[in-house]
Amino acid sequence: MWSLLIFVIIGLFVSQNSVDATHNCTILTKGSPYFPKNFKFGVATSAYQIEGGWNADGKGPSIWDDYTHHYPERITDGTNGDSAAESYRLFDLDLKALKDLGVHHYRFSIAWTRIFPTGYINSKNQKGIDYYNDVIDKLLANGIEPMVTMYHWDMPVGIQKFGGFSNTLIIEQFLDYAEELFKLFGDRVKTWITINEPNEICKGGYGTARSPPLLNASGVGDYMCFTNLLKVHGATYRLYRSKFFEKQRGQVGISLNVDYVFSQTNNTNDVNRALDYEFGLLAHPIYSKFGDFPPILLKEIGKSSRNEGRKRSRLPSLGTYWTSVIKGSADFMGMNYYTSMFINSSTEPRGENPSYERDYNYVSTVDTRCPKAKSFWLYAVPQGFEDLLKYIRDHYDNVEVKITENGWSDSGDLDDNMRIKYYKTHLQAVLNAINDGCNVTAYTAWSLLDNFQFHAGFIEHFGLYAVNMTSPNRERTPKKSAHFYNKVIKTRSIPYDF
Ligand SMILES: *[C@@H]1O[C@H](CO)[C@@H](O)[C@H](O)[C@H]1NC(C)=O
Ligand SMILES: *[C@@H]1O[C@H](CO)[C@@H](O)[C@H](O)[C@H]1NC(C)=O
Ligand SMILES: *[C@@H]1O[C@H](CO)[C@@H](O)[C@H](O)[C@H]1NC(C)=O
Ligand SMILES: *[C@@H]1O[C@H](CO)[C@@H](O)[C@H](O)[C@H]1NC(C)=O
Ligand SMILES: *[C@@H]1O[C@H](CO)[C@@H](O)[C@H](O)[C@H]1NC(C)=O
What we know:
By secondary structure, the protein is of the alpha/beta class. The chain has 17 helices and 13 strands.
């Protein structure tokens, strides 16, 4: 309580002293008011959050099924994704919403255990395959491009048994799955995202005990997960290029989530170091010229490991072979942006020894000056979005960026003016970045529908469409923001008078 109050007081103090050096919760309009002609607008969802049918027609259990069933008390409202928006049964309602919005693409994820119930490809479930064929075919028949995430957190229980991302076995287990996806759907799917938000997967699931599989081994487990996950991603990309690209001609990328950071003391070195930890850990191996983890992480974590009396670093180099597999293993960078943080270097070691927190060693606070969403972590900081895109332009060779998520949570009001305001300012941030030469080609709003927000259950609403959760028919109703977004797409600009 007191520490929270101190954060608030620091927040107020900062607001009066370094506003110009950082941002003021709003954003300037710069340059052309139009998104480029071939810029693509879409919306996103993920399987566990919308599909329901958790054991329908032979689907196997994922770690999120097990987790929510075993620990309902760890979900804010005690709910789970057993039925959610029932998209498995009611996809036609989603299709209608997508058509009404006029989106160019729809980003959804495939539930691994819906098509391979144990996770292994000898457990093929035709009903699950039929479902995704139907989704893809209906999208294409309506001129909507499918953008498919292969893995959005719902690890098969049958694979997690052997360690999931903490065992190098995951490389062949995932490759087998990926190869089947390319064979089954690659004739029609031209945009693939291997993995959604490694930061959440590895820090939440293997570092802390926030998410399944609750490894709770920060400073070791999280880095092990990042390492294996990067190998999975790199190997999947190479598989596509060597066996499928010639015929299928698609793009393969990964969706990274990052909170941009502002320095409380206006220290550029702190910003660069913090971004190397939060973002470079994943982006540097894939998108930099030299590959491997950022040199500063290898050096610092190597040194700490030696000081701890270890024989090896907790974050070893990827080595020559894997560095070359992973370097350049993406046709685009998928970016999920929601918010930014304030950081300040810490004089005292932080967190447990060892831990990611201790390696990172910044005091990280939210910006209490800015509007706050329903989610406790989400403050509207559009300038951070523009600055992040420019950081990518300058540090990662202006790689093509597709925004794969961006959105705002509230309590579910249909008259969602604050969501519209968030979208206006964040679309402006993207437009400013494009006008400044950033290679951003797509924007994907999170989310099409109100859905199961993992730890927050159904309490936080991110949808452009509301879902009637008390009705078996789960009727979808467009919110004001759905009409707003439709106008954005139609005019390729931001309707400020909306
Ligand atoms: C922050 O640093 C930049 C350059 O390093 C400088 O131009 C600016 O005046 C500084 N702002 C504050 C508030 O110290
Ligand atoms: C995680 O591990 C720490 C010790 O490193 C322990 O104090 C904490 O209770 C564990 N949390 C959970 C949820 O298991
Ligand atoms: C940042 O940290 C330094 C030293 O760790 C401290 O002196 C300073 O007061 C902090 N600044 C803010 C704005 O928290
Ligand atoms: C944008 O990215 C694409 C794909 O990587 C590349 O071909 C193009 O040259 C880039 N454009 C700019 C302006 O850098
Ligand atoms: C939701 O559905 C229930 C049951 O069909 C109905 O009684 C209720 O009016 C609906 N709520 C809204 C907001 O439409």
